[in-house]
Write a structure and sequence with these properties.
The chain has a single domain, classed as Alpha-Beta Complex (Sufe protein. Chain: A). A hairpin with a 6-residue loop joins strand 1 and strand 2. It contains five helices and three strands. By secondary structure, it is an alpha+beta fold. The radius of gyration is 14 Å and the shape is globular. The structure holds FE2/S2 (inorganic) cluster (FES). The site of FE2/S2 (inorganic) cluster (FES) has 10 residues, from helix 2 and helix 5.
C-alpha cells in the first residue's frame, strides 16, 4: 500500500490557496517544536464568512497537504464552521495520513484556530 494517498500527493504537489492576504483580518502562526515546521494562515472574513484564506507553510509534505486541504474546507464557510474544523476532518478529507504524520494535520487545525482568535481580538467579535 502506498504510504500517502493520492489526495495527499495531489495537495502536496499542487497546493491550493498558497500565499499571503495583504488585508487579512485574521492571521495565525503556529509551529511544532519537535519537527520545526511552521504554518501561517491568513483569513479575510466578511459578514461572518471566510471569504478568502491563504497559507504559507515551511514544513513537510503532509503539512503542506494538510494546510491546502484545510483552506479548501473552510473557504466560503461561516466562521462558526471554520472554528469547528478538526485535524481529524482534515486527515479524513485527505483520505488519511500515516499515524506518525497526524501531527501535521494538527498544525493546520491550530493555525486556523489561531487566525480565528486573532480575528476575534481585532474585531471584538465572538465566534459562537
Ligand atoms: Fe512536522 Fe509534518 S513533520 S508538520
Amino acid at each position: 500500500m502506498a504510504l500517502y494517498s493520492e489526495k495527499v500527493m495531489d495537495h502536496f504537489r499542487n497546493p491550493r490557496n498558497v500565499g499571503v492576504i495583504e488585508d487579512a483580518n485574521g492571521i495565525g502562526e503556529v509551529g511544532n517544536a519537535k519537527c520545526g515546521d511552521i504554518m501561517k494562515m491568513y483569513l479575510k472574513i466578511e459578514d461572518d464568512i471566510v471569504q478568502d484564506v491563504k497559507f504559507e507553510t515551511f514544513g513537510c509534505g503532509s503539512a503542506i497537504a494538510s494546510s491546502s486541504m484545510a483552506t479548501e474546507l473552510i473557504k466560503g464557510k461561516p466562521v462558526s464552521e471554520a472554528m469547528k474544523l478538526t485535524n481529524k476532518a482534515v486527515a479524513e478529507a485527505l483520505d488519511g495520513l500515516p499515524a506518525y504524520k497526524m501531527h501535521c494535520s494538527v498544525l493546520a487545525e491550530e493555525a486556523i484556530q489561531s487566525a480565528l482568535e486573532d480575528y476575534q481580538k481585532r474585531t471584538g467579535k465572538t465566534i459562537e
